[in-house]
Amino acid sequence: MLFKQKSKLILALAGLILSSAVNAGTQSDRPNILVILTDDMGYADVGFNGSTDIITPNLDALAENGTMMTSAYNVHPFCGPSRAGIMTGRYPHKFGSQFNLPTSDNSGGLGIPTEETFISEVLQDAGYFTGALGKWHLGEESEFHPNNRGFDEYYGFLNGGHHYFPEHFDRRYQAERKKGLNRAIWHYLRPLEHNGKEVKETEYITDALSREASSFIETAGDKKQPFFLYLAYNAPHTPLEAKAEDEAMFPNIKDKKRKTYAGMVYAVDRGVKRIVDSLKATGQYDNTLIVFFSDNGGKLKAGGSNMPLRGSKGDVLEGGFRTPMFFHWPDKIPANNSYNHTVSTLDLFPTFASLGKATVAKTKKLDGKNIFTNLLNNTSARAGESIYVLRHKADLSNAAARRDNWKIIRNHNEPWRLYDVEKDKSEKNDLSYMHPHVLREMVADMEMWSWTNIQPKWFHIQAEGYHWRKNSMPRFHETFSLGDITNLNNAR
Ligand code: CA
Which residues of 308-318 are buried (b: 16+ CB within 10 A; e: fewer)? Predict the structure, then answer.
């Protein structure tokens, strides 16, 4: 009898210990994950990555207290496909999403195919409290809405961009409504929404998104679940609109566009301080993984700078798709550190899923790597393997691949070239004639990759679809044709 009672007591105690372990587990074994994404922000547009004119003290502090990725790449050199890659962990070319979605008045109800599982769905299923804020650009109809793609909370605008000052865009929106335009109203002017319901936003959009992020983090602090927050600022994407006080931070910048752009980046940085303060106030700072990056390179004509990289948004030169990036997580990620091996934003899906102890269906295809252990050990997650970038143009596609220190590139119908981008970030010294075997092998490998691509399911603008048909695109047989390398080089 006594033995039985003792056993019961031991079992009860064990149960208590077990249940407290489970509770502790949900709060600290798995990190909160906060993605802070900027839009069209260039390689040289944040202090920690070498900006000489824009100051970003709060981002710099996080970068310094974390690990900077010096060779981080987007999946695509412009918005929609880049974001589709982040969410799905796959190259958008593999599910026909290699162009931006058509704008909403003629979208025909299109969106990223629902067969493609998003990282948000996987983390939500694993018990994460999930939120998306800001620019979506992955489909507007109900089935593609963030709330139906793994996000408990959504606040923002579903299209590819927005004006920043409500007092201006709301007035223009109301005027267009009076004209009876309704669905044809330019989407940059439309009201923002919260979980599908229109809201009347009154703050500068960047500040509104920082406010919502802070509020989400505070709500998450009261929950037992970890959180996943995808904060997609549209800054510093056009239209160039900054607050006067933010622009005033840059008296030495004379170029008007650059000055406004700098103010827009500075507003993001102010928001980051607010977010960090909320993480600290709710005791979540040490166990939150913050990943910061831009969705593609800076647009040179719109105030961005990618120095010392060549190229602009849309290019497959490094300036088009290489991004400043850091991982910050006081509990686990080394501070004052840089990771120089290649990172793709495709790696975020498997890395986040692993940290979140989430189950990924065996049938789910992923193109990236779980880089977490490599990051801690400072080893490459893809030694000898390429990261690809392919942008279809009106004629031959712009194509490039990065493998270890090497980069192959064919830009604007020029011959294929080979650079050692570890030593030559500016892609100045073509080494194809010195290492033709490397060029040949990498181009052949990329051609094999291209065979798994499918036809685009849509085109952003009609002209793209017209070119696609008129030029019998994608014409991969020509894109990946080297011709005679020796002759090509002699001809130069
Ligand atoms: Ca973009």
Answer: ebbbbbbbbbb
What's the gap in Å between 308 CA and the centre of ligand 1? Answer: 20
Residue 177, both tokens? 């409504």
Q: What is the pLDDT of residues 167-226, one digit of tens each?
A: 999 999 999 999 988 878 899 999 999 999 999 999 999 999 999 999 999 999 999 999
Find the 40 Cα to ligand 1 centroid distance in Å: 4
Token pair of 23 as six digits: 């509770």
Ligand 1 center to residue 80 CA distance, Å? 7
pTM above 0.90, yes or no: yes
The helix/strand/coil state of 140 is coil
Name the architecture of domain 386-491: 2-Layer Sandwich (3.30)
Sheet holding 406-410, edge to edge: 386-391, 398-403, 406-410, 417-420
The domain ranges of the chain are 31-377, 386-491
Does residue 13 carry a pLDDT above 60? no
Best CA proximity match to 136, nearest among 127, 146, 149, 128: 146
Alpha-carbon distance of 381 to 52, in angstroms, equals 32
pLDDT band at residue 458 under the 50/70/90 scheme: very high
CATH 3.40.720.10 fits 31-377, yes or no: yes
Cβ atoms of 63 and 290 closer than 8 Å: no
How far is the centre of ligand 1, averaged over its atoms, from the C-alpha of 19 (Å)? Answer: 45
